[in-house]
Structures are given as C-alpha cells and as structure tokens.
Amino acid sequence: MSSTRVSLPADRGMPAAEYIQYGRRGFPVRYDEIVDRVRAGGGPVNKVEAEALVQSVAAVLGQRLTGAQAGRLADHLPEELRRSLIEADQGQRFGAVEFLGRVAQREAMGRTGEQLRVHVRAVFGVLAEAVSTGEFEEVLDQLPADYEQLVSVAG
Predict the structure, then answer these.
(1) What is the CA angle 145-37-138, rounded to 5?
(2) What would the pLDDT profile of 91-125 be if each residue is shown by its tens digit?
(3) Which pTM was predicted?
(4) Rounded to whole angstroms, how far apart are CA atoms 106 and 143?
(5) Do residues 110 and 34 touch, judged by C-beta distance below 8 A?
C-alpha cells in the first residue's frame, strides 16, 4: 500500500512535508497518541503500563505476522512501534491463547484472563484506527479465527 503526502494544518507540530497520509484519519498517529488512546479505550490507565502493553502487543504481533506484512504495517506506525514489529522473529504460528500468554510475559504486569483480553482488544482497536482499513484487513487475514476474540472490537 502506498502512502501519499498531504498538507495539514500547522498546529499538528510538524511541517506539512513530513506528514504522510495514514489510516482512516489522513495523518500519522504519534506514539504518545496511540498510548493515550489505548488508555482511554479500555487499556491500562497508568501510562507506563499502557506503554508496556502497546510495545508487547506490537512485538508479539510482529512474531505472528510474516516479515512482509509486519514491514507494511510498521510503515504506517510511529518509529517506537516499527522497531517492535520488525525486530521480532517473524512468521511464527500460534493461536490467540498463546498470543495473550506472550503479551503477558513480555509486559510483566501480572495481567491474565479477561483483563488482559480487554487490554489487548484496546490496542488492536487503536491500531485499526491508525492504519488504513485495507492494511488492517491484511493483518487480520494472517490471523486464525480464534483471534476474533482479540480483534472483534477493532474489526
């Protein structure tokens, strides 16, 4: 998927030339905005915990996606998440339960069960808004049906 340069109001904090059209909103999402939206959307309220969750979900998603898909998704996200997605050992096959277990292990916040599921759903929901519908659908195409419990709110 190609990106298109667009002009945006100067109040966005970056010169218009640095903006690339992303997702459904037409401008790139900043890392702190992703974390804040996860916090507001059912994720951890604590900023440090929300950052750990977002990074953990990105890293584990990077492990699950093929390298090409992880790279395409990473192209639409802030640098802080790109690294997590593309530096993972990609293309691994595992289901939603293992996905949750890997996220819990990486974030090391002691969350399990329904609370962890709700938090991961919040991250997927924000990622779905941050990238184009087509890009997010390509991500979903690589995930088995049992991931629906994690992405149903986002999809």
Answers:
(1) 30
(2) 999 999 999 999 999 987 787 789 999 999 999 99
(3) 0.81
(4) 20
(5) no
What is the identity of the amino acid at 143? L
Please write the tens of the pLDDT for every residue from 17-65: 333 334 555 556 899 999 999 999 999 999 999 999 999 999 999 999 9
Secondary structure (H, E, C), the chain: CCCCECCCCHHHCCCHHHCECCCCCCCCCCHHHHHHHHHHCCCCCCHHHHHHHHHHHHHHHHHHCCHHHHHHHHCCCCHHHHHHHHCCCCCCCCCHHHHHHHHHHHHCCCCCHHHHHHHHHHHHHHHHHHCCHHHHHHHHHCCCHHHHHHHCCCC
